[in-house]
Design a protein that fits this description.
The protein is 40% helix and 21% strand. By secondary structure, it is α+β, with helices and mostly antiparallel strands. Among the domains are: 132 residues, no CATH class; 71 residues, 2-Layer Sandwich (Alpha-Beta Plaits), CATH 3.30.70.1070. The strands form four sheets. A four-stranded antiparallel beta sheet has the order 11-12-10-13, sandwiched between helices. A hairpin with a 4-residue loop joins strand 3 and strand 4. Helix 2 crosses helix 3. It is flat. It starts with a helix and ends with a strand.
Length: 312
């Protein structure tokens, strides 16, 4: 059993995942930051830590394993206990435990478990797809002093141009006035002619339309064919769970709400606890389901989770 795989899945949805009789992995949200010396921009993330004091079983890990592997809860709890004993034995021998996408565990000189988190994955679904990047320095050049120095050496002097004869301006103004009045009169005449022509054409068109309506007989000789509605049947063993409900009417109401939002929601039956399960959609492959799960967590419900279940 790959215990780190189940822990990693739960860390996307929960801030605390407890391993009974061993400890708990905790997450804390950190804001985006900028490294001043390297000019590197880091996106927001969940910082991962380990607390050896939290060993009380809360049922979260064992329940998830039981659902995924389709085994009883007690059997899942026994498998977790065996894995914990193996990890403790290796740590006592001085081994370093590598948990993929989580980090490293090792015993220090005081026989305490020391944890070094991995930086290969960001468990904050809001920051999915974001990575750090480095920006170069922005150099701002100042030209003010250079301009002032040029002005001191070569001052700019504006000299108005002299005109000896301005009589031609009078004739030009008179010509412009004459052309403006003539153009206004011609435009008014043209607009009036166009308006009269359009009015006559509209009246003629209305008379023809009235005649056609009076003579028309409405017979539907070629009725439209009957509409055929094809429904896409949901299939696949990978389901994105929206919730489980004790009352069936509540599950049907949840399905309607999700379908109104564009999801291919449906009920997939009752689980081992007698709850009616509602899913956003079902998929044939784990990759497609995981891709849609990230989208649902980011845009709709951060508590949605993946269920692997073969339906009858």
């Amino acid at each position: 059993m790959q215990l780190e795989t189940y822990i990693s899945d739960l860390l996307y949805r929960y801030d605390c995942v407890t391993i009974p009789e061993f400890g708990a992995f905790l997450t804390q949200r950190l804001s985006a930051k900028i490294h001043e010396s390297t000019h590197t921009f880091y996106p927001p993330k969940k910082a991962l830590s380990f607390n050896e004091q939290l060993q009380q079983n809360d049922g979260l890990l064992a329940n998830y394993i039981a659902e995924v592997e389709k085994i009883p809860y007690t059997t899942a709890l026994i498998k977790v206990s065996k894995q914990v004993k193996s990890i403790k034995s290796l740590l006592a021998e001085g081994e370093t435990i590598q948990l993929e996408n989580i980090g490293e565990l090792v015993l220090n000189a005081d026989e305490k478990t020391q944890f070094s988190p991995s930086n290969s994955i960001n468990y904050l679904t809001d920051a999915f797809g974001l990575s750090h990047f480095t920006s170069s320095d922005v150099n701002r050049e100042i030209y003010k002093e250079t301009v002032e120095a040029i002005e001191d050496v070569t001052p700019i002097v504006l000299t108005p141009e002299k005109r000896s004869n301005r009589n031609w301006l009078k004739y030009a103004a008179a010509a412009v006035l004459f052309l403006g009045v003539g153009g206004f009169v011609a435009t008014a005449y043209y607009n009036n002619s166009i308006e009269s022509h359009n009015q006559l054409a509209q009246e003629e068109a209305n008379e023809q339309l009235d005649a056609k309506v009076q003579e028309a007989t409405f017979v539907i000789s070629n009725p439209l064919p009957a509409a055929t509605l094809s429904l896409e049947k949901q299939s696949g063993n990978y389901h994105i769970v929206a919730g489980a409900f004790r009352v069936e009417a509540n599950s049907e109401r949840k399905v309607k709400q999700l379908r109104d939002k564009g999801f291919k929601a449906r009920k997939i039956g009752m689980n081992r606890y007698g709850l009616h399960e509602v899913v956003y959609a079902s998929f044939e492959t784990r990759e497609d389901a995981q891709r849609e799960l990230y989208k649902v967590r980011r845009e709709h419900n951060r508590d949605a989770w993946l269920l692997i279940k073969k339906l009858d």
